[in-house]
Recover the amino acids of this structure.
């Protein structure tokens, strides 16, 4: 089959709390990309997923972009970016419309989504995604794709995600000041989910928890649609800070110790090794024990997972999580995190890495790249759905009318 996607370049920028990662890829099929370059730079301008220093963020984006451009030989002019932070809100909504011509057409779907979306959103917030969960026609419920079905009344149940206008604008501004046009802004856990979850998991029911540096981003999928999202302001950097404070050492040293000896689950402690580390003051070395490190890390990990547990309970999400939980993000590399999650949530837990194909071996095989890679996959799948379902003049009109969220349609 001829490759109609050849030469189509897709670029993503994951503006994380600890690193900015730019990926340049070539689309090779309707749901696959080939990575041409990775550009990465430490991030210093964000706190808990939100830009707090524009100049520093721009500097980091520039560095990462420069590297990606150099490796790929491609000038980056536009990109899709991710968003996270405590300003993100999400809720379910529904809408209903009469089916105009007997069978459900594209404009009926557009209208019912518009009806579900026509609700008061909190001041200072803007809609980022309107994600259909299912449709109902007359008394028939839980329809995934109502196109072409007969009935009188069409109803849609949707999940709406909003973000603070200021935070969105700051991200756009940082990219624009680097000379890059933002073509789409995607909630980070939706991207990570596209990178690490497989089709069966999404269909049968699963949750993803991306434990980053600044935030832990949670999303639940069932019947291939989103059921619930949440952003938790507890993630890897807080673990590192706890270690620095608890052991009186520097942030850098705390990070090194966490990555090399950190443990989140006491049942995995075999030998209580001694750890040599630098103290916060001067050159002096100091020894501590792995069990002491565990005493600092485990309660914080429990706190995070208990928030997830409470959320699952509060919104009755367990019945959706048939295949369990997938951990990703750099924080999932902490030894014992998976086992602790299994114990607290009482369900299967696995670590998710980007399911990349046709790439340089090893280059993206870390959970820290889930968001960046997922942004690419999310984008090409969106385009595919838009092209497949909406061609012709009507499609163009609808597309124009609902420009910002049309592609989350099906
Ligand atoms: N081997 C490791 N063991 C424990 N923690 C690790 C390891 N490697 C990375 N981390 C932690 O992962 C975190 C960074 O993860 P990631 O790159 O996914 O975050 P980010 O995308 O920059 O941040 P965010 O998504 O929250 O804005 C850091 O807190 C880091 O300490
Ligand atoms: Mg991240």
């Amino acid at each position: 089959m001829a490759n109609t996607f050849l030469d189509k370049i897709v670029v993503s920028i994951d503006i994380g709390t600890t690193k900015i990662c730019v990926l340049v890829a070539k689309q090779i099929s309707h749901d696959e990309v080939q990575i041409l370059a990775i550009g990465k730079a430490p991030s210093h301008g964000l706190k808990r997923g939100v830009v707090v220093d524009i100049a520093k963020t721009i500097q980091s984006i520039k560095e990462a972009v420069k590297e990606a451009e150099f490796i790929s030989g491609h000038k980056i002019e536009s990109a899709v970016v991710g968003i996270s932070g405590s300003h993100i809100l999400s809720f379910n909504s529904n809408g209903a419309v009469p089916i105009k011509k007997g069978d459900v057409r594209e404009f009926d779907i557009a209208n019912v989504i518009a009806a579900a979306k026509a609700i008061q959103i909190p001041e200072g917030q803007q809609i980022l995604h309107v994600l259909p969960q299912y449709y109902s026609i007359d008394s028939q419920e839980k329809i995934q794709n109502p196109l072409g079905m007969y009935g009188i009344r069409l109803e849609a149940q949707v999940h709406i995600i909003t973000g603070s206008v200021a935070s969105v604008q700051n991200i756009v501004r940082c990219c624009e000041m680097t000379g890059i046009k933002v073509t789409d802004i995607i909630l980070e856990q939706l991207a990570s989910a596209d990178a690490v979850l497989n089709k069966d998991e999404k269909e049968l029911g699963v949750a993803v928890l991306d434990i980053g540096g600044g935030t832990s981003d949670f999303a639940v999928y069932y019947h291939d649609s989103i059921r619930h999202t949440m952003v938790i302001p507890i993630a890897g950097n807080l673990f590192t800070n706890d270690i620095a404070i608890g052991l009186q050492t520097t942030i850098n040293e705390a990070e090194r110790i966490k990555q090399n000896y950190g443990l989140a689950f006491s049942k995995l402690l075999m030998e209580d090794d001694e750890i040599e580390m630098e103290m916060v003051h001067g050159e002096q070395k100091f020894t501590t024990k792995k069990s002491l490190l565990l005493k600092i890390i485990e309660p914080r990990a429990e706190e995070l997972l208990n928030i997830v547990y409470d959320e699952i309970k509060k919104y009755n999400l367990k019945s959706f999580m048939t295949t369990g939980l997938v951990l990703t993000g750099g924080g999932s590399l902490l030894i014992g995190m998976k086992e602790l999650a299994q114990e607290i949530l009482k369900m299967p837990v696995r670590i998710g890495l980007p399911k990349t194909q046709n790439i340089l071996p090893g280059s993206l095989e870390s959970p820290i790249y889930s968001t960046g890679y997922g942004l690419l996959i999310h984008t090409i799948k969106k385009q595919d759905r838009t092209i497949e379902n909406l061609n012709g003049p009507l499609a163009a009109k609808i597309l124009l009318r609902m420009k910002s969220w049309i592609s989350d349609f099906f």
Q: What stands out?
A: The longest helix spans residues 290-314. Confidence is low (pLDDT under 50) at residues 386-407. The pocket of magnesium ion (ligand 2) is lined by residues 14, 16, 188, 212, 329, 371 (CB under 6 Å). The CA atoms of residues 216 and 232 lie 5 Å apart.
